[in-house]
Amino acid sequence: MASSIAAQMYTLREFLKTPSDIAATMKRVREIGYEAVQLSGLGMIMPLDLKRILDDEGLQAVITHVSVDRLLHDFDALVDEHKLWHCPNVAIGGLPAEYRGSKDGYLTFAGIASEIAHRLKEHDLTFSYHNHSFEFAKFDGKTGLAWFYEKADPLVLAEIDTYWVQHGGGDPADWCARMKDRMLVVHVKDMVMLEGQQTMAEVGEGNLNWPRIIYACRQAGVQWYAVEQDVCHRDPLESLAISLRNLKAMGLT
């Protein structure tokens, strides 16, 4: 399929606290031009009510962020929700804290992730891991993220976050290339210097090398570019609109 752009709803989490908030915000997301979303950061809402909102706005749910706890202890309900939403991809937002401090921790969680990925595959769902920058701490000469993907079954996919790779001292384009045939969704956000500190920016408004990143993503087989901006320095909906406009100018659809 052709690559497309999705809005990572975590960007708008402050506007997603109630079902009525969610409905109004999804409507705004559709109005600014997005046709797909990543479900993350939503307040309490019944799965069927969320499906109605998505259907009413003509929005496709392409991937979620869920907790490891739900994957381990509420698996059947989680699968049912994704089937209801016609959402084929499941991801976690980061490594649980208890695994972060050592090489053995990354290797242990790689085994857990592999088991989760196999269970989801039985239901025609994929499983992806989303990185931050702490995974770029080195153990025995390799980053934690490198140890994780080296150990994990190839069914464990990547959801590389361009900002956090750069923040950790990595090369976003290089990491996207390394995940060839192992990444369906990439998180795109830019990095800018503000008052001497690194901070997040709309895609195309900062210093990341987007031609290299997009080329690497295309070569890797990425299907969805999920726009996420954890910290916005203007209205978050305006930030999503700017990123969408800039990505389209770069040749994405």
Secondary structure elements and pairings:
Blueprint: E1 4-8, H1 19-31, E2 36-39, H2 47-57, E3 60-66, H3 68-73, H4 75-85, E4 89-92, H5 103-121, E5 126-130, E6 138-139, E7 142-143, H6 144-151, E8 156-159, H7 162-167, H8 172-178, E9 185-188, E10 190-194, E11 197-201, H9 210-220, E12 224-227, H10 236-249
Parallel strand pairs: 1-2, 1-12, 2-3, 3-4, 4-5, 5-8, 9-12
Antiparallel strand pairs: 6-7, 10-11
Helix pairs in contact: 1-2, 5-6, 8-9
Describe the structure.
The structure is a single chain. The chain is an alpha/beta fold and 253 residues long. The protein has a single domain, classed as TIM Barrel (Alpha-Beta Barrel). It has ten helices and twelve strands. It has helices at 19-31, 47-57, 68-73, 75-85, 103-121, 144-151, 162-167, 172-178, 210-220, 236-249, and strands spanning 4-8, 36-39, 60-66, 89-92, 126-130, 138-139, 142-143, 156-159, 185-188, 190-194, 197-201, 224-227. The strands form three sheets. It has an eight-stranded parallel sheet with strand order 8-5-4-3-2-1-12-9. The chain has a two-stranded antiparallel ribbon with strand order 6-7. Helix 5 links the parallel strand 4 and strand 5. It is globular, with a radius of gyration of 17 Å. The chain starts with a strand and ends with a helix. The relative contact order is 0.15. The mean pLDDT is 97.
The total of helices stands at 10
Tally of distinct domains? 1
The computed structural class is: alpha/beta
The largest pleated sheet is described as: 8 strands, parallel
Anisotropy-based shape? globular
CATH architecture: Alpha-Beta Barrel
**Percentage beta strand:** 15-25%
How far the N terminus sits from the C terminus, by CA atoms, comes to 12 Å
Radius of gyration over alpha carbons?
Answer: 17 Å
Low-pLDDT segments? none
CATH topology: TIM Barrel
Order of helices and strands: EHEHEHHEHEEEHEHHEEEHEH
Using the coordinates above, name the CATH class: Alpha Beta
Q: Roughly how much helix do the residues carry, as a percent range?
A: 40-55%
